Amino acid sequence: MSPEVLGAFRRRYDAALEAGRAANPPPAPTGQRGRPKRGKAGSLVERLRAHQGAVLAFMEDFQVPFDNNQAERDLRMVKVRQKVSGGFRTQVGAERFCRIRGYIATLRKQGESVLSGLGRAITRDSPLPTLA
Description:
The protein is an all-alpha fold. It is 64% helix and 0% strand. The protein has helices spanning 3-23, 39-50, 52-55, 57-60, 70-85, 91-109, 114-122.
């Protein structure tokens, strides 16, 4: 992105944070020890302000994913399998299922064809995953 577009997005982000801060002002001191609680919305606004660089990292480096739900996506099929079939019959079956799903996830993350990768794994001609 051009610096002008990045600047415009950063200004909009800052304006949204200011609006959030105005809607959720810090609580008045109560005279008790410690920091007064801000509430969920106020705490979120402060975390988004404190970690602005990490939140907006995807705009400067397109290798950074927009969200961090990859781990949840990887586990989803295991939970679906448990829900549909009522669970795994044996520990070995669960381990095999997870190994296959892990291999498929690795193929996808590396841009490989899943079908040809599984075919190579069956014929024991599969390459080892590469580390980027």
